[in-house]
Amino acid sequence: MKGAGGKNSWALFLLLLTGIVLGGFIGMLAEGVPALSWLGYGQTFGLDTPIVVNLGLLVITFGLTIKITIASIIGVVIAIIIYRFL
């Protein structure tokens, strides 16, 4: 699956996912350091309480929470820059 300019869209997806995960991890680690605590600042959104579907024999629980931090935004920007140079 090739995107515009012949670049692979899966590579972009994996780079963005890596940027989000590593940025979130760095933001979580930086919360304890006073000079870097701004990297952990962000917003959480999603389902506060999960949705439970009880079918008698099967119980299904749906839930999704996303936390976007400054560090994860920086990680996404770095991932896009790396993708452009590939």
From TrEMBL:
The chain crosses the membrane at residues 12-30, 50-83. InterPro entries: DUF4321. Keywords: Membrane, Transmembrane, Transmembrane helix. Pfam families: DUF4321. It comes from the Bacteria. This is DUF4321 domain-containing protein. It comes from Dorea formicigenerans ATCC 27755.
